[in-house]
Automatic annotation (TrEMBL):
Induces bone formation in conjunction with TGF-beta-1 or TGF-beta-2. SMART domains: LRR_TYP. It comes from Loxodonta africana (African elephant). The keyword Secreted applies. This is Mimecan. The gene is OGN. Keywords: Disulfide bond, Extracellular matrix, Glycoprotein, Growth factor, Leucine-rich repeat, Proteoglycan, Repeat, Secreted, Signal.
Length: 298
């Protein structure tokens, strides 16, 4: 009787017991016996578990083809779009030159005319180029210029009014050009350099220097002057006139013939060597000077 009850209980609980999952060896045996795509299915599941989980799922979505014509990359968020170009954005004015803090450097770039300059320019260095002419429009819109240097160009002509609007200009160098006459100079010049040109005395007007009350340094050496320019301002400290064709001077050239007490005390250097003049013949021409001019006295 007890045996029969035990058998009945065993038969009652057998359907509730689940078989254990097959081992890898059992899987291999199942594949060997007719499951054609089982290994491929296992590989795909393993790939999706490893590479399409968490952050790596973005790799799959990194390329989007919205319209079939263009690709939009979304993976690299560090790439930023360029800002849209402003409609009124102007081209830079310094194309051939170097512009830095109000200074413009156009040296040895073979330009044959003054290039467009920023309106705020204060210093222009255009040395050793091929500029032949300076015009009134070159500086018409640049009133803040304080220094211009055109050393080593081919300048033959400077239009009237070229410097008329440069009320702040303090230094002007036209050295080593081909000038035969001087233009009207701006009133606040402290330095004017026109050495190594072809300037003749008739190319300098009587009042060219008269009103330049701040002019301190004047360099006109190595030209074709046959006389000292008239009406040199009292402010001058250095006057270079060496290697010209100056043959004579007067008592009024540097001093005042009618004022024996007049002293030109600011002049520190006058150079006249290399001229045909014999300075010893004109002793009354230097009575107002603290130092005699440099040159030949015999």
């Amino acid at each position: 009787m007890k045996t029969l009850q035990s058998i009945l209980l065993l038969l009652l609980f057998v359907p509730l017991i689940k078989p254990a999952p097959p081992t890898q060896q059992d899987l291999r045996s199942i594949y060997d016996y007719g499951t054609d795509n089982f290994e491929e299915t296992i590989f795909r599941q393993d790939y999706e578990d490893k590479y399409l989980d968490g952050k790596n799922t973005k790799v799959k979505e990194s390329i989007i083809i919205p319209d079939g014509k263009s690709l939009q990359l979304q993976k690299d968020e560090s790439v930023t779009a360029l800002p849209p170009k402003k409609e009124n954005e102007e081209m830079p004015t310094c194309l051939l030159c170097v512009c830095l803090l109000g200074s413009v450097y156009c040296e040895e770039v073979d330009i044959d005319a003054v290039p467009p300059l920023p309106k705020e320019s204060a210093y222009l260095y255009a040395r050793f180029n091929k500029i032949k002419k300076l015009t009134a429009k070159d500086f018409a819109d640049i009133p803040n210029l304080r220094r211009l240097d055109f050393t080593g160009n081919l300048i033959q002509e400077i239009e009237d009014g070229t410097f008329s609007k440069l009320s702040l200009l303090e230094e002007l160098s036209l050295a080593e050009n081909q000038l035969v006459k001087l233009p009207v100079l701006p009133p606040k010049l402290t330095l004017f350099n026109a050495k190594y040109n072809k300037i003749k005395s008739r190319g300098i007007k009587a009042n060219t220097f008269k009103k330049l009350n701040n002019l301190t340094f004047l360099y006109l050496d190595h030209n074709a002057l046959d006389s000292v320019p008239p009406n040199l301002p009292e402010s001058l400290r250095v006057i270079h006139l060496q290697f010209n064709n100056i043959t004579s001077i007067t008592d009024d050239t540097f001093c005042k013939a009618n004022d024996a007490r007049y002293i030109r005390d600011r002049v520190e250097e006058i150079r006249l060597e290399g001229n045909p003049i014999i300075l010893g013949k004109y002793p009354n021409s230097f009575t107002c000077l603290k130092k005699l001019p440099i040159g030949s006295y015999f």
